Amino acid sequence: MEDQKSLNFIEEIIEHDIAHGKHAGRVHTRFPPEPNGYLHIGHAKAICLNFEIAKKYGGKTNLRFDDTNPATEETEYVNAIKRDIHWLGYDWEDREYYASDYFDQLYEYALDLIRKDLAFVDDSTAEEIAEQKGTPNEPGKLSPFRSRSVEENMDLFVRMKDGEFPDGARVLRVKVDMTAPNMHMRDPVIYRIKRQHHHRTGDKWCIYPMYDFAHGQSDSIEGITHSLCSLEFIHHRPLYEWFIEKLGIFPSRQIEFARMNVNFMITSKRRLLQLVNEGIVTGWDDPRMPTISGVRRRGYPAAAIRIFCEKVGIAKRDNWIEIELLESCVRNELNQTALRRMVVLDPIRVVITNYPEGQTELLPSENNPENESTGERDIPFGKVILIEREDFMLDPPKKYFRLAPGATVRLKSAYIITCQEVIKDETTGEVTEVHCNYYPDSKSGSDTSGIKAKGTLHWVHESSAISGEVRMFERLFTAENPMDEGSDFMSKVNPQSQKVIKNIRLEPAFADAVDGDSFQFIRHGYFTVDRDSKPGHLVFNQTVSLKEGWSPKE
RNA sequence: UGACCCAUUGUGUAACGGUAGCACGGCAGAUUUUGGUUCUGUUAGUCAAGGUUCGAAACCUUGUGGGUCAACCA
């Protein structure tokens, strides 16, 4: 049976359009970032939506940089954005466009509107225009310059373009409706004078179109059939359609969906920049950042992000996604792909008293029990090993399956041991060493001992272990919604969001690990090799812990 | 005090006038040489009040609650 997957409301619109032969059944979407910051997890949803929906209906997706404001936009961001989209697994082929590619065409459109007496040059100041607009509760007033002749408007606009007037001296506005309840219809500004070097057009222009006069027309020029954007643009749609009608251009359709909010995260480029600038994080790609580059460095697989975006769904209601869902997608992916390794973060020595002095042996262990094709590796074992300090308790509670005086445990892929003696520091009372017995016939894979051990511990062989460090992370913010009204989001920054543990002990199989490799540290979680690693000294970022089960508190 | 959008278990999302389902989470159990994974069971929901209808989560009205809109930003 076919599993009947229900459609989201955008797919319903598209299928309806296809069924009615609109645009001959063609589907063409676009992802339109402004190159003024790095992409974050919220953008990932828009990227996945646009690319996946085009793929589903046999269409294409363009990448288009919405670069109409040269004051904030830079080539550095263009490159970072392209890298992030590719990393996510999407390809726009040769369709890399820029709104600035259309500046000449846009200028012609403006001339057309002037000729149709639908646009006028306004000498009012920004403050005066704001005043003319009125408020949502009161209608606006006509600009005193609204009645200029077509000839005068044409002359003034050409001279604006030719650089005859200082920045901000005049703007081009369209004549829509100053009494409209929708503020965006109150004779919006469509061109402003701004002497700014543009990252692509250089100093060719001193006038630049506004968003409303660039975005929709760019969609139209590219033949975009379904222009998907977030809900806050819903009030722009009447204007979007007004321009299509008045200009008589290809009728792209704007459809709005709700952006995704993820708790404990912020997705405001301005505020993300503030975290970078104030040194709260080390950069846009700090592993604690909700940016695409941040989660990549953190070790989140691209596939996990894609599945997350799919699970989150598409609708129009405000939503708060639990960060646990993202983490569950990451665990699910890494469980399938990450190689298992044993690492001791906080070691305590275990001496196997009845193991021959000076002897070592190699014990095979599976690289990933979820994927047999990853094979096995050999782990050295010997008389002195290291286990996790938290895996030993002098006075354990009930249901404690780990090591304690007299207790018996299995060493993963090795032998069963029983604790017989505890060595303490005479002055501090701290446990410094645990002495155990091992059962030679309990060897993993050929266990004939008949002994049952409740718990299994990870370990490393002391003298063959290699060293490294790990960065453990907590949420970057202490509040589910850091932007909650009232206090400033900076006061919600978690001061303990990163903890570095130096001198961790790793099994020797890590020797050839490289930047970006992901591993499961058995019984700890998933970790990825950071680019700060140096030969002989691996640095890991904690990607996500294993799902928490039992914990020894109480 | 205007216009527009929205309202389904804790969270997200279906049901298109005809049995309120799925995923994640929670809880309980089974399996387990990772207290992971996997498997099984279970929990819990239509914002409110009217109306239309044989029948309403859905359609209508009015409330209520949340969100968005007044940059020469996008």
UniProtKB/TrEMBL annotation:
Residues 27-335 form the Glutamyl/glutaminyl-tRNA synthetase class Ib catalytic domain. Keywords: Aminoacyl-tRNA synthetase, ATP-binding, Cytoplasm, Ligase, Nucleotide-binding, Protein biosynthesis. Residues 338-438 form the Glutamyl/glutaminyl-tRNA synthetase class Ib anti-codon binding domain. It comes from the Bacteria. SUPFAM superfamilies: Nucleotidylyl transferase (SSF52374), Ribosomal protein L25-like (SSF50715). The keyword DNA-binding does not apply. Residues 456-530 form the tRNA synthetases class I (E and Q) anti-codon binding domain. InterPro entries: Gln-tRNA-synth (IPR004514), Gln/Glu-tRNA_Ligase (IPR050132), Glu/Gln-tRNA-synth (IPR000924), Glu/Gln-tRNA-synth_Ib_cat-dom (IPR020058), Glu/Gln-tRNA-synth_Ib_codon-bd (IPR020059), Rbsml_bL25/Gln-tRNA_synth_N (IPR020056), Ribosomal_bL25/Gln-tRNA_synth (IPR011035), Rossmann-like_a/b/a_fold (IPR014729). Its EC number is 6.1.1.18. GO terms for cellular component: cytosol. CDD domains: GlnRS_core. GO terms for biological process: glutaminyl-tRNA aminoacylation. One of its GO terms (molecular function) is glutamine-tRNA ligase activity. Belongs to the class-I aminoacyl-tRNA synthetase family. This is Glutamine--tRNA ligase. It comes from Candidatus Opimibacter skivensis. The lineage of its organism: Bacteria, Pseudomonadati, Bacteroidota, Saprospiria, Saprospirales.
